[in-house]
Records
---
Amino acid sequence: MLTQSQDNEEIIERVAALDIGKAELVCCARVPDEDHPGRRLQEVATHSTMTRALLGMSDHLACLGVTRVVMEATSDYWKPVFYLLEAAGFETWLVNAKDVKHLPGRPKTCWTRSGSARSPSGRCSARVSSRRRCSAGCGT
C-alpha cells in the first residue's frame, strides 16, 4: 500500500557546488539559460583558496545570481570558504560527498575515451559561460 509523503522537492534556480581542497577549490555554477527556456548553463572553474581569490569567486557568483552554495571538503579546509561566502549573503551548505553523489541533475563525470575535456589535474575543464550580463559594479 502506498502512503503519501510530506517530502517537498525544492529546485534551486541558481546554485553553485564547491569541492574544496587545501590549496584550491573547484566551483561548478549552474544557472538557467535565458536563450533556451528549460535548459541550464554550467560553468566549472578552479580557484585558489587564498582570500583574494575567494572574494573574486564570491563576486562572480553574486553576478550570476547564485543564491545557494553547496560545498564538500576534506578536513577543515571548508571553514574559511564557508564563513566568507556566508558573510557575503549566500545560503551556504556543508554536505557529505556521499550524500550528493547521486542527486538528480548532478553533472556526470567529464571523461571520454579520447581523454578530452580533462585538465592535467584530472578535473573537468569544459566550460560554458553565461551570456547574462552583470549589473554595473560587478567588474565583469
---
Amino acid sequence: MHSKDGDVTKTAEYTYDYAVIRVVPRVERGEAINVGVIVSCPDVSFLDARIELDVPRLLALDDTLDVEGIQTNLATIPAICRGGAEAGPIGALPQRNRFHWLVSPRSTVIQPSPVHTGRTGDPAAALERLLNTMVRRPSGQGQRA
C-alpha cells in the first residue's frame, strides 16, 4: 500500500494466540480429528472460534459416538468466545480469561491443542486461514478412484 507521496505504509500487525480444537473419540487410542480453531487477539479485543465437524470422518474413527452430544458441546465454544449470558457463568469472565479457560488442557473427547502464536493484521482472516490449513480437507481429498 502506498501513500500519496509514494511512501510505503504498513498495515498494523498484532500478535494472536490460537488453539486447534480436536475430537478424540476414544481417548485411550489417541486418534483425533481437528474440528475447529479458537483465535485470541487481545490488542484488538478479538476472540472467536469456528467449528466445522466432518461427521463421516468422525464416525470412521468410532461409529458408536454420540454425534449430537459432541455437536452440542462444540457449539458452546463459540458461545463462550462471544461471552454474555448465553455462555453461562464463564461468559461473564474477561475475554482473555475465557480464552485461557477454553484452551486449558483436558482429557475428554473434546480437547484443545497446545496454544500457538502468530502475527496478523486481520485476526478474522487468520482464523479463516487456520481453518483452511488445520481443519478443512484439501480439495480432492477423501475421493477414491
---
Amino acid sequence: MARTPLPCLVGFIILLPRCGSATATAAHSDLPMADCGAVDACASECDTGKSGSCYALGVRYETGADAPQSYADAALLYDRACAAGEPRGCNNLGVMREIGLGGIQDYGAAAELYRRACDGGDAQGCSNLALRYEDGLGVTRDSREARKLVQRACSLGNATACAQTD
C-alpha cells in the first residue's frame, strides 16, 4: 500500500514526531460533537451517562476551549465516553495513549482503543489502527490487516483512507 506523506496539521490533529513523513500520524475523530451547551451542562449530562457529552467535554479539556486545558481530565472523560459506547472517545483516548498525553505512552493500549473505535463505526479509529498495523506499533506488523482497515475506514467515510485505496 503506497502512502503519501501526511502533512503537519494543527488544531484537532495530534501530531506524532514523524509529521511530514510517509509514516503514521494518529488523528482525532472528526465527527461532530454533541452540543451540550456550557461546560457545566456537559458535565451534568456526562454524569448521567450521556457518552456524547463526556466526549464533547473531553475535547474541551484537551483543547482548552471553554474549559481549562487538562490532558489528564480529557483522558478521563474520553475513557468514560469510550466505556459508555462512544467510539470517538475510544479513538481520541487512543491518540492520547499513543503519544503519552494525560498518562503513560502505551502503543498496545492505543491499538486496542483504536480497535474499539473502529468496531464502533469510527472511521478515524479504523484509519489509526491501520497505521499501527502498518508500522507494527502495539500490534504485530500485518500489511494485509492494514489494507483491510484502510478499506473499512474508507467505507465509513474517511477521505484520506479512500485516497490510499486507489
